[in-house]
Amino acid sequence: MAYPASMEESKRKVEETRPRRLEKGPCARIPEAEREELVSKFHPDYRKEQFRELRLGPNKGRPAPLEIADVLEGNSRIDPDKVDIENIDYEVDVLVIGCGGAGGSAALLAEENGASVLIASKLRLGDANTIGAQAGTQGCDRANDSPIMHYLDIVGGGHFTNNPELAEALAKDSPDVIRWLESLGVNWDKEPDNSYHELSGGGASRRRMHSCRDYTGLEEMRVIRDEIRQRNWHGKKIDWLEFEPAIELLMDGKGQVAGAILMNLETKRMTIVRAKAVIMATGGLGRTHIQGFPTTNHYGATADGLVLAYRVGCRLVDIDTMQYHPTGAAFPPQVLGLLVTEKVRTLGAEIVNCDGEQFVHPLEARDTEASAEIRECKERGKGVATPTGELGCWLDSPMIEIKRGEGTIRRELPAMVRQFSRFNIDITKEPILVYPTLHYQNGGIMIEADASTPVPGLFAAGECEGGVHGRNRLIGNSTLDLFVFGRRAGRAAAKWVKEVKLGKLTLEHVRKWQRELKEAGLESMPVSPMLLPNYANQEKPVPGFQPLGQISGYTPFGDRAVRWI
Amino acid sequence: MAETKIEEKAEKKIRMLNIYIMGKHYEAPEGLTIQTALEHCGYNIVRGCGCRAGFCGACATIYSFTHDPTISYALACQKEIEQNMVILQMPFFPSTEALYNLEDLEPKEGENKLLELYPDLLTCFGCNNCTKTCPQDLLVMDFVSDALRGDYEKVHEKSFDCVLCGLCAARCPQGIQPYNIALAARRLRGSYLTPVPQHNLDRVKEIEEGKFDAELEALKKSDGAELRRRYAEREIEPAL
Predict the structure, then answer these.
(1) Which helix (H) or strand (E) holds A63?
(2) Which of A155, A185, A419 lies at the smallest CB-CB distance from B102?
(3) Any B CB within 8 A of A499 CB
(4) Any domain includes B151
(5) Which of B31, B65, B89 is the last residue of a domain?
(6) Burial B77-98, CB ≥16 within 10 A → b, else e
(7) CATH code for the domain in which residue B168 is found
(8) Smallest CA–CA separation between A179 and chain B, in Å?
(9) Residues B120 and B189 grouped into a single domain
């Protein structure tokens, strides 16, 4: 048994209350009026002191989380006067920045529609939040379901703040996304009659979660990545650069986005890419650790796309709202903040407090569920303390085996079983300690239904774009979003490049940005995009050395064109 | 309660372990994973770090001990450090992948597409290094022999939890690429052997034909009160 003695007593109470909970069933859902009060009192989005108004750029005067405001108001990593943008390394139709589910599917669709494509990925192809998505992808394809029902769930879940055109696109494209992924070789879980095995999810009125065990995102991503690689060989129309994030967009004299400056993370050399269209698909921002929360996000989730798009004039929508996943691991410390998929609750696990009592329906929308946990731990004092001082609630996974029969967990949740067994916790027999963790950026770059932004030549897809989910996203709609808007962006960009005539490349927008920073008295802000978090323990550093990703301690321009080291 | 906890914590001395990163000696506190131990020792990782949660295979790592040269394998984000561990991260392995166009690969009776793509499969002599290497504890050699027989279903079943870290290929004395072979097998199965179900195709067709357009259009235009009413009154299907 891996739980320390201090947690064993509470664990025993969870075991003792199981028969009673089984008899009673899940507790009632929270009525709408109470829900609003709960969320506004306990959800981290409502802590006013954790936000500030942006002081320049398209969102000037609007609030953003402090950590995001810092990168949005950052200095450019380049000195526009020292970069030779005439010395072009790559000339392509479409540059895709980022290669998760959105960037990958955008690249495939752009290629299918006749464009030459270059992908610039900060880490490896496919190193993205997509790969860690476990629960599934929504698709309204069962007989009792429809895009109407899906639409209602999307906008209701988003508290009616979604962009209706984007919500419609998400619902309407969903069955085709499922079909497309299967045609590329994704192995969806199926029933014996070959129909999809579809589960329900928090806030969804129909069973429409398509899953691949609890490795859904991994399965989607490895198929998309493989297809990209195969298309590179067959005709060489998709190419890619790994470990080369974009550090600034390029524009032409006509106000169109016309490529990007990339930086090789290993050699620190620049790569100049001229492209007729750019698709921003850089994903989320969990590694900025908003309000100090741990995160489920991958190593490179640092809001880079928001920063680059903001500097060329894109407005950001709902950037002051984040999703805190209700079930981040709270114990053991080695997995703190990592995702425990919502599928655990979908399958029948309940959330209970230190006394083994239910206090919230297990399938509320995520903001509600997370707020209820915070209330239980922080206000009611019913959380469970870990030896390192974290608080959490129990996610009573063994209930799944009781409700659905022995062996269900191993079959449906192999990743979770493996994850916890590495730390000697058997989730088929023991509950999991959970607490909300920073999971998803609800908002992002403002787009139209074809994934275009107001800046000509720039498209955005996936987590970095906003408006689809309003102020709260439902389970299974993020992986869906990736492919819906990735595919739309790919198609729209391929169409755009057939018409556009680029002018001369310029970095005038960077000069303008630096001037505005200075006028606002912000010239000493750190550089951005952040690229990577800095987790290296910097005891006794060499004086003046600025490590990768450090966002405090701004170094003024040196001799180098790229601000680095 | 909270105060006593902090005192207890301060009293309990953290045990420092000797580790050797690519042979160089460092000390790191017990309880860290290989990944966080690297960071504790001052490394700012660029390669060899992805999801940090055991899903992406970026942090494949080889380790042994100063007192025991037996080579072991792990994902750096999932493995705790141990005393006298000697660590080498292997974030990239130069493996080759067969080239194919999925559209040309429909499996036919009596043909083994996997063997056509990966003739090296025939050279497996059963040393089982691949299975011993797998940080996901998959039965790699088993699915390699399933692939040899063209049993896509079994390869899919046994290899599904593969995170493509590449360690199996790195250790194969014959240069076989089990993870790439399994990926091809799963794609063939998903694409050809399990057709898209009719209920999905029907819905795609209905949407293309515009069956829901008028009602969606009305919903998009309806005012907040109407939308809230429809949302609150919608019937919720019970979980399976």
Answers:
(1) strand A63-65
(2) A185
(3) no
(4) yes
(5) B89
(6) bbbbbeeebbbebbbeeebebb
(7) 1.10.1060.10
(8) 6
(9) yes
One DSSP character per residue, A142-209 reads STT--HHHHHHHHHHHTTT-S-HHHHHHHHHHHHHHHHHHHHHT----B-TTSSB-EE--TT-SS--E
CA B25, B29, B30 angle in degrees (round to 5)?
Answer: 110
Give buried/exposed letters for A459-493 (b at 16+ CB in 10 A, else e).
Answer: bbbbbbbbbbbbbbbbbbbbbbbbbbbbbbbbbbb
Q: Find the residue in A nearest to B188 (Cα).
A: A185
The Cα A62–Cα B137 span in angstroms is 50
CA distances from A208 to A149, A175, A198 (A): 11, 10, 5
Per the listing, tokens 């299975």 go with B131
> Which candidate, A507, A104, A95, places its Cα nearest to that of A311?
A507
Q: Is the pLDDT of residue A432 over 80?
A: yes
Q: What is the pLDDT of residues A435-450, one digit of tens each?
A: 999 999 999 999 999 9
∠A339-A343-A345 over CA atoms, to 5°? 100
Cα–Cα distance for residue pair A189/A208, rounded to 1 Å: 12
Q: Are B66 and B86 in contact (CB under 8 A)?
A: yes
Give me A118's structure tokens: 């270059």
Task: Say yes or no: A331 contacts chain B, CB-CB below 8 A.
Answer: no
What digits encode the pLDDT tens for the residues A273-309? 999 999 999 999 999 889 888 889 999 999 999 999 9
- CB of A386 closer than 8 Å to CB of A397: no
Is residue A123 a contact partner of residue B50, using CB atoms and an 8 Å limit?
yes
Whether residues B50 and A179 touch (CB distance < 8 A) is answered with no
Residues of A assigned a catalytic role:
325, 345
**Amino acid at the residue A222:** R
Interacting residues of A428 by C-beta distance below 8 A, sequence separation 6+: A397, A398, A401, A409, A410, A417
Report the residue of chain A nearest B34, measured CA to CA. A334
Which residues are CB-contacts of A326 (< 8 A; sequence separation ≥ 6)?
A342, A351, A366, A369, A370, A373, A434, A436
pLDDT tens across A35-83, in order?
A: 889 999 999 999 999 999 999 999 999 999 999 999 999 999 999 998 9
Mean confidence (pLDDT) of chain A: 92
Q: Which overall architecture, per CATH, does domain A90-321+442-505 show?
A: 3-Layer(bba) Sandwich (3.50)
| Nearest CB to B204 within list A149, A175, A207 | A175
Asked if B111 and B176 sit in the same domain, the reply is yes
Q: Do B188 and B145 have their domain in common?
A: yes
Q: Does ipTM come in above 0.90? A: yes
Of A57, A59, A64, A48, give the one whose Cα is nearest residue A441. A64
Domain of residue B186: give its range: 102-193
What CATH topology corresponds to A5-30+326-438?
Flavocytochrome C3; Chain A, domain 1 (3.90.700)
State whether residue B1 is helix, strand or coil: coil
* C-alpha distances out from residue A241 to A9, A99, A221, Å: 53, 10, 17
Strand residues in chain B grouped as ranges (E): 16-21, 24-29, 60-65, 68-75, 85-89
CB contact under 8 A, A534 and B44: yes
A539 close contact with B: CB closer than 8 A: yes
A213 close to B (CB below 8 A): yes
Tokens linked to B100: 């194919």
Measure in Å the smallest separation between the Cα of A337 and chain B Cα atoms. Answer: 10
End-to-end CA distance of chain A: 46
Instruction: Name the residue ranges covered by the structural domains of chain A.
Output: 5-30+326-438, 90-321+442-505
C-alpha triplet B228, B229, B232: angle, nearest 5°: 80
- Smallest Cβ distance to A205: which of B78, B160, B235? B235
Question: Does residue A407 have a pLDDT over 50?
Answer: yes
Question: Which single residue is written with the structure tokens 């040269």?
Answer: B69
Interhelix angle for A477-499 vs A101-112, to 10°?
Answer: 40
A421 touching B (Cβ < 8 Å): no
Mean pLDDT of A256-262: 98
